[in-house]
Amino acid sequence: MPRTSLITSVIIAAFGLTGCAQDLETNTEQTTPAASTAIWPKLPKTVPIDEDIESKVSALLAKMTLEQKVAQMIQPEIRDVTVEDMRRYGFGSYLNGGGAFPNNNKHATPADWIALAEKMYQASLDDSLDGISIPTMWGTDAVHGHNNVIGATLFPHNIGLGAANNPELIEQIAAITAKEVMVTGIDWVFAPTVAVVRDDRWGRTYEGYSEDPAIVGKYAAAIVSGLQGRSGDGFLGDKRVISTVKHFIGDGGTQGGDDQGNNLDSEQDLFNIHAQGYVQGLSAGAQSVMASFNSWHGEKIHGNKYLLTDVLKNQMGFDGFVVGDWNGHGQVKGCSNESCSQSINAGLDIFMVPTNAWKPLLENTIAQVKSGEISQARIDDAVSRILRVKFRAGLFDKPSPANRALSGKTELIGHPEHRAVARQAVRESLVLLKNNDSILPLKPSINVLVAGDGADNIGKQSGGWTITWQGTGNSNDDFPGGSSIYDGINNVVSAQGGKAQLSVNGSFTDKPDVAIVVFGEEPYAEGNGDLDNLDYQRGQASDLALLKRLKAQGIPVVSVFITGRPLWVNPELNASDAFVVAWLPGSEGNGIADVLFSNADGTVKHDFKGKLSFSWPNRADDTTVNVHDEQYSPLFAYGYGLTYRDQKNLPLLSEEVAKAANSTNKLAIMQGTVKSPWSLQLQSAEKSMTMTSNTAMLDNVRVRTTDRFVQEDARAISFTSNEVSKVEISHAFAEDLRAFNGKGSALSFDVMLTGDVPSNAKVGINCDAACSQGVSLSTLVSSKDKGKWQTIHIATDCFANDSDNMAKVYSPFAIASRGPLDLTVSNIFLSANLGDEDIHSCSE
């Protein structure tokens, strides 16, 4: 049955979430080791103290009221603050989170970005309500180019840049990023990430340059210099932005690779391994540092005075400001998003406070100063640091955002020269793991089959932090000026009289001379990308099946692997004649064809330069294999990478896989983000739309991302009329979910009501065959429990009387209503065996 014919099918709603709340205080040890600031260096004053600036800071501080000072320390997010709020309070800064855009429009133009920047700036200078004129500053996550803006140049993610090991190129990339950011009137970039990743299960592994602190340190200095300029040489001038070295400290070394987890390293290892990016980044003049979500020996960094103040500010001599991460202060013991004196007292200077928590946080902080819970001296120190950076950046002297040197020069967004640098970065980042019988480079005059779901998918090849926060919901149309990997191959082959056939599933009409198969991880960002082991496509192996099918037809196979980390891919390596790790190359996919193909005469056009900056696992449970370990036995060692001069063949590899805890009896439908292959759909009458941003609205139904445990890990759903509407997680092709239809199987989800439940609201699963009319929501939750999270388990046989119905599931979770309904859902799962859990049964 075509998927469209199901849109107006029976009203059912099925979203599955378990009650497995993430423990944000994961601790196996609670005692902080004995501290010794002597471990930490005193850093050079790359940006010397300017007595004129210090005098201006002191004079301005003396004029400010307490309310004005605290407002400088509050950083709200554009979805939750208005221009009038800025006029009233005069916030020191504001941000756009990943997937937040002016006017909530994913396709906002550079002019839209500039217009918002100008309005906020002018409102901050308007003293009619708050009584003072201090320019605000806008911070953004431009982590691989100006990645929130349609049409911007997107560079390879950090893991690919680390494989290139070219600091000069990195500085050039950062300078280009600064230019494209300045075009949109923005002042401040939350980069570079200098995490040294020690466990590749971490979902932010691709944000790290290397497992080796040496590369991370060199790159930190290069990125900071590229973003800000070098001290005394156009430093923070018209083509530069304020940089942020993040996340201080130890985020790459948490136990189990858990995002926002607990780092148990000794203080010496914390310095030797995790601090080198700060040593060099701050020595290059970085003006801001972002505190990390993680804990160190059980204490959240956002509340750790020893690290934020004694080490960073006093010992290392950092005189810029420390900004928090997304409501990170709310995770400190005894704190909430709305109140946290502990973070300010520990040394946090700016609260990053998205959602409407900013107002009570501002009011509570003012009250805490008045009561003596926070000293006036600590407030003055924080505000002095903020003002110092603003003066250094020239914000008091520069024209307004709409009138700055690069503002509005939209030709710089995705400029051909910028794309050429990104294309070079793609070429230099590629790592060749296997090239049996020297199958590469390929002559461009041949017949090439280009297969795999990553072949013509710029969103997939760009990964997370790409337009949207998780990098999901994007199509090639969202990347004007960009090129997919297939685009590059087709251009090279067509120019030399060859033929390129694009076929995702590997089918063909004319048998090709070679198949290039592009496959790999789906996009993800922090939290949602965490794994429990490194087995690629565990329990699924559809890409392996494609490789084997092509090999069985006598077609040589070149694999191009899209990934944010090293993964255990021994079977895929064995099924490939050549294997290229492309990492997450960004918008310039044509750079890959530059290396895969020779010149017309067969001579090498561009050789492979990339070398592994992360060790490659020997087994699926080799999650913490790092260079310089005492026991070091990777499959491919740190620094490995073939060139076209290497002639050796790779022998068959072991395909035995050591697996971590078996989790195949649970299938995540939405855990933080909606999981592949599904997407969230809104349906009303005969219309439907896919949610591709942080908000979506269709007639009488609205969905918005919201925070529960971590950033945007829940969905707030609102039905506003008596017209039938539905929200479902679905896919155009059916999934075989018969494994989740036996005894003890259930659809599970967490839900919090914020309104009454109409009698006809239902939850369900949509199958190819008629599943059921759904389960009434009112039998599962009660209006008396408004404002409380509840975990619901519904037996899957409520939806499918026959197990064969679950063989073709289009939507594993849907919720529909014919009346007003407001609720929030998170953590949606299908489980095969819930044991003793309280499961709602539909049987007699």
List keywords for this structure.
alpha/beta; eight-stranded antiparallel sheet
Report on the structure:
The structure is a single chain. The chain has 844 residues and is α/β, with parallel strands linked by helices. The protein contains 20 helices and 31 strands. The longest helix has 17 residues, at 167-183.
Q: Which stretches are poorly predicted, pLDDT < 50 over at least 5 residues?
A: 1-30
Integer average pLDDT: 91
Quick one: overall form?
A: globular
Portion in helices: 10-25%
Query: How far apart are the first and last residues' alpha carbons, in Å?
Result: 32 Å
Give the topology:
Elements lengths: L50 H13 L2 H7 L1 E2 L7 H7 L3 E4 L13 H16 L1 H4 L6 E4 L17 H7 L2 H17 L4 E2 L23 H16 L15 E5 L13 E2 L3 H8 L1 H8 L4 E4 L3 E2 L2 E2 L4 H11 L5 E3 L17 H6 L4 E2 L5 H14 L4 H17 L23 H14 L1 E5 L11 E5 L6 H5 L22 H11 L3 E5 L10 E7 L21 H11 L4 E6 L7 H5 L3 E6 L6 H7 L69 E6 L1 E2 L4 E6 L2 E4 L4 E4 L2 E6 L7 E6 L5 E6 L15 E8 L8 E6 L7 E2 L12 E7 L13 E9 L3 E11 L13
Parallel strand pairs: 1-11, 2-3, 3-4, 5-7, 6-8, 7-10, 13-14, 13-15, 15-16, 16-17
Antiparallel strand pairs: 8-9, 12-17, 18-19, 18-31, 20-21, 20-25, 22-23, 23-24, 24-31, 25-30, 26-29, 26-31, 27-28, 27-30
